[in-house]
């Protein structure tokens, strides 16, 4: 039995919720705003679109405008979070990455990481917001429509568990990731197009054409634990050591130290020359970029893609165009491999270039990671029993309402 809520909200603010009322109705939220995200409109969007919806849902907020990189990370790491029911991020995926890692750096990380998170799209990519919109069964939305959809979920008090991936590097770094790890083409596009952030989502199209012109090959060894092997591991293939994790007690039981070979039941990819390696744990990499159509907020999987060297520029361009609708796997491209995994290790042969974690740069070095199921909570509609097909308009569990209708509905 749950204890009675000492501060029950007025009855009209209690719609039935996916979580079965397990979480308190959000009454006070911390709002982190990045004035440099995307086209630089986060503050304006907050005042014009989000604040009126919060007011109608009787949700109080404490705004924090980030002043520099890592400011959000420090705020969530150092503040007393008990005064807020949720942490809201109106920015891009990069700021949410800071928030997740700031929470995991706290001495009370086990409780802190269960503080509900809400992503409101204000950046250029907004991959998690676009994925959450997709999971809700909505038609594709961008910009202000996507912001309204995500704010609506916050106002309704809908939360769902989300997987996080723990990443460790050979030099001893530990990071947590909710979206992606990458090396090669996609990561290069992300980093190279950073300077065009003010173009919004169009920065990725421009970056793709630029990087196609100077296509690079990346050499390294990729190993992974397929999901099916993790369900039935052979008794002689289990890791011998549990990797000790500096600064955190969350262990990665699927991983072994870098000086040991990966366990025997892992797959080692025979090829060692790649155009890209990309593990994504949500469906979208952007509003127009459905990379893993079957992914869900929590499915205990990383969706690992790798593209072998030797693909022509034209074939690569066709693959990327198909990702607009999430049909790239239907093209049966012999260079493209896809496998859902629970863990991976990537050992680059040279340390040139950058890797990316949730779109943020990471110096190139050996990296390994594993999924942690349902480690955090995120503002989202309840998971549908089967993932919706990728490119059709969906039936509407979360109705396509006008803003005014949504405001009304959020307060009923
Ligand atoms: N006031 C600030 N000035 C400069 N940089 C900041 C400031 N506040 C936060 N940052 C940094 O800006 C970076 C990018 O922010 P964010 O992810 O919000 O936007 P984006 O890059 O446009 O969106 P996306 O990550 O979706 O592509 C973050 O890594 C964060 O550290």
From TrEMBL:
A single GO BP: sphingosine biosynthetic process
Gene Ontology cellular component list: cytoplasm; endomembrane system; membrane
Residue span, DAGKc domain: 24-171
Keywords attached to this entry: ATP-binding, Kinase, Membrane, Nucleotide-binding, Transferase
GO MF annotation list: ATP binding; sphingosine kinase activity
Organism: Pelusios castaneus (West African mud turtle)
Main location: membrane
Class of enzymatic activity (EC top level): transferase
Location of the protein in the cell: Endomembrane system
EC numbers on record: 2.7.1.91
Cited Pfam families: DAGK_cat
InterPro entries attached to this UniProt entry: ATP-NAD_kinase_N (IPR017438), Diacylglycerol_kinase_cat_dom (IPR001206), Lipid_Phosphate_FormReg (IPR050187), NAD/diacylglycerol_kinase_sf (IPR016064)
Annotated protein name in UniProt: sphingosine kinase
Domain of life of the source: Eukaryota
PANTHER family noted in UniProt: SPHINGOSINE KINASE, SPHINGOSINE KINASE 1
């Amino acid at each position: 039995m749950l204890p009675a809520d000492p501060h029950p909200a007025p009855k009209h603010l209690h719609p039935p919720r996916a979580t079965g009322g397990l979480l308190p109705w959000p009454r006070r939220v911390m709002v982190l705003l990045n004035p440099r995200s995307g086209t630089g409109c986060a503050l304006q969007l907050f005042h014009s679109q989000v604040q009126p919806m919060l007011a109608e849902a009787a949700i109080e907020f404490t705004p924090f405008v980030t002043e520099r990189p890592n400011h959000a990370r420090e705020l969530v790491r150092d503040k007393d979070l008990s005064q807020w029911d949720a942490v809201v991020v109106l920015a891009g995926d990069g700021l949410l990455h800071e928030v997740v890692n700031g929470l995991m750096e706290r001495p009370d990380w086990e409780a802190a990481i269960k503080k509900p998170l809400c992503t409101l799209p204000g950046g250029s990519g907004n991959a998690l917001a676009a994925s959450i919109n997709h999971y809700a069964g909505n038609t594709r939305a961008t910009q202000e429509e996507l912001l309204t959809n995500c704010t609506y979920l916050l106002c309704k008090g809908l939360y769902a568990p989300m997987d996080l991936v723990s990443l460790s590097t050979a030099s001893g770094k530990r990071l947590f990731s909710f979206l992606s790890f990458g090396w090669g083409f996609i990561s290069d596009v992300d980093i190279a197009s950073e300077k065009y952030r003010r173009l919004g989502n169009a920065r990725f199209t421009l970056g793709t054409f630029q990087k196609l012109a100077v296509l690079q090959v990346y050499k390294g060894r990729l190993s992974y634990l397929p999901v099916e092997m993790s369900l039935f591991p052979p008794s002689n293939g289990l890791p011998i050591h549990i990797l000790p994790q500096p600064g955190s007690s969350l262990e990665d039981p699927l991983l072994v130290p870098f000086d040991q070979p990966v366990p025997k039941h892992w797959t080692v990819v025979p090829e060692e020359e790649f155009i890209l390696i990309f593990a994504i744990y949500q469906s979208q990499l952007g509003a127009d970029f459905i990379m893993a159509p079957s992914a869900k907020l929590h499915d205990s999987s990383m969706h690992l893609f790798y593209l072998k060297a030797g693909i022509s520029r034209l074939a690569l361009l066709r693959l990327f165009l198909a990702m607009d609708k999430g049909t790239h796997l239907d093209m049966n491209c012999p260079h493209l491999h896809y496998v859902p995994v629970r863990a991976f290790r990537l050992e680059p042969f040279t340390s040139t270039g950058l890797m990316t974690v949730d779109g943020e740069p990471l110096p190139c070095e050996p990296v390994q990671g594993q999924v942690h199921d349902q480690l955090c909570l995120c503002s989202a509609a309840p998971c549908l029993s089967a993932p919706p097909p990728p490119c059709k308009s969906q039936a509407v569990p979360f109705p396509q309402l006008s803003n005014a209708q949504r405001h009304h509905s959020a307060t009923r």
